[in-house]
Amino acid sequence: MEVLFQLAIFFILLALGYLFGRRAESKHYQQIFAREDQLRHIVVLNQRFPPPGMLAHRTDMVCGNVVISVDYFKTVVASLRNLVGGNISAYESLLDRARREAVLRMQEQASLRGAETVINLKFETARVSGNAGRAIGSVEVLAYGTALIGPGK
């Protein structure tokens, strides 16, 4: 009887993790889309050198970082996927949201400094916490680059 009770609790937690995780992820994506539209005027490039027309611009390093945790449902799905191997799609949206949020925070910092372009975009990622070192609990993404600030700003 106790095993059935524990199994029931597991499935309840799994369902709650799925429902609340999907809701939080959907809400975060809506916020990301709105902020991307607001910051679309700040061009972000991965090239190392400024475009020819921006050689006289002042430069400043800008960065944005975020730590996003994975929900219980994705942890369980990823653990099951690890048994058979292959692509762990449960983590793909986690990393996508983290990268996009980090870039947005970097663009917001560039906007506050009066920049119109960010060049030399780089990413750094790290696992912040986990389940005894075996599973991802949270992921940190740092986006950084060189802001080009126009003359007179």
TrEMBL record:
<dbReference type="InterPro" id="IPR035439">
    <property type="entry name" value="UPF0145_dom_sf"/>
</dbReference>
<dbReference type="Pfam" id="PF01906">
    <property type="entry name" value="YbjQ_1"/>
</dbReference>
<comment type="similarity">
    <text>Belongs to the UPF0145 family.</text>
</comment>
<dbReference type="InterPro" id="IPR002765">
    <property type="entry name" value="UPF0145_YbjQ-like"/>
</dbReference>
<protein>
    <recommendedName>
        <fullName>YbjQ family protein</fullName>
    </recommendedName>
</protein>
